[in-house]
Amino acid sequence: MSEYFLLPLASLPFPNINPVIVQIGPLAVHWYGVGYIVGILFAWWYAKRLVTNTRLWPDGVLPMKPEDLDDFIVWAAIGVVLGGRTGYVLFYDLPRYIGHPLDIFAVWQGGMSFHGGLLGVILAMTLFSLKRGIRTWSLFDVVAAGVPVGLGLVRVANFINSELWGRPTDVPWAVEFPNGGPFSRHPSQLYEALLEGLVLFLVLRILTHSRLKLKTPRFVGGAFICGYGLSRIFVEFFREPDQQLGYLLGTNWLTMGMILSTPMVLAGIWAMVTAKPVTQPQPA
Asked: Going by C-beta distance under 8 Å and a sequence separation of 6 or more, which residues neighbour residue 66?
């Protein structure tokens, strides 16, 4: 046994957690779905805490009522699902869905795009804020502040599902995924969970509570957009590209994730640079 521990470690064993938490007849509860639900509920709960803390807002004037967020959660859920699915169809596997259009509705087979989901939520926030007379960027800021938790949970679910794994590697923490071929691979899902989830949440927490950047509309939202884009671009260097797309433009490194994330970085930088503090109280 002691000789075994002296051998070089080729890869870590895959934990082989069942992707289905519980199944009752045809009804199955998946970690992936739970990640989305818990993420949305946390962002809702966290946003309500932010909009009831007068210390965080200019002149102590709250930008909206907590009840507004109770109503918005339905809009957000619809935006995430419709936007995420539409984005995946358009950005990642359009030829397949043109040939088999009914597969677009088979969401249980997987296939969601963060970039599409983001666009869906942005549209939902814009329409909702205009309808309620809420400052759009403030709604964006409070929602964005809690989103990283959901992102992290969904990436952990990707790991449990043995999907979206990384490129082959010989690093000591490499994992041999059951459907990833005879290769030790980067656990890139966990890299994303760490950066897009934990690290980004802590950065935004510092901005909201220590730097009081909610008093500067669109700064927190811009930091979220930029932070996600940078994290995604970095992890794409370790993540296996989608099989149907591969590397783009004849390179061995450029991926669709990088292309879609680059405008996010630029938009986030623009939002932070041009954000200005609110000096006059505005009605909720």
From this structure: 48, 51, 52
Angle at 32 between CA 95 and CA 88, to 5 degrees: 20
Q: Give the angle 6-10-14 at the CA atoms, nearest 5°.
A: 115
Beta-sheet strands, E only, within 215-279: none
Q: Specify the residue for token string 């939002």.
A: 271
Structure tokens at 159: 């790991």
Helical (H) or strand (E) element with 267: helix 256-274
What b/e string do you get for 86-107 counting C-beta neighbours within 10 Å, with b at 16 or more? Answer: bbbbebbbeeebeeeeeebeee
20, two tokens: 């289905």
The angle at the Cα of 127, spanning 223 to 198, to the nearest 5 degrees, equals 30
β-sheet bridge partners, residue 132: none
E-only strand ranges, the chain = 20-24, 27-30
CB 193 within 8 A of CB 29: no
* pLDDT attached to residue 101: 83
Structure confidence at residue 227 (pLDDT): 98
24: Cβ–Cβ under 8 A, 6 or more apart, which residues? none
Helices 136-160 and 219-236, axial angle in degrees (round to 10): 30
Low-confidence ranges of the chain (pLDDT < 70): 1-10, 107-110, 280-284
Is residue 165 within 8 Å of residue 209, measured between CB atoms? no
Q: What is the pLDDT of residue 2?
A: 39
Average pLDDT, the chain: 90
Q: Would the CA dihedral through 98, 108, 156, 5 be positive or negative?
A: negative
Residue tagged 């009605």 (tokens): 283
Query: CA-CA distance, 173 to 4, in Å (whole number)?
Result: 17
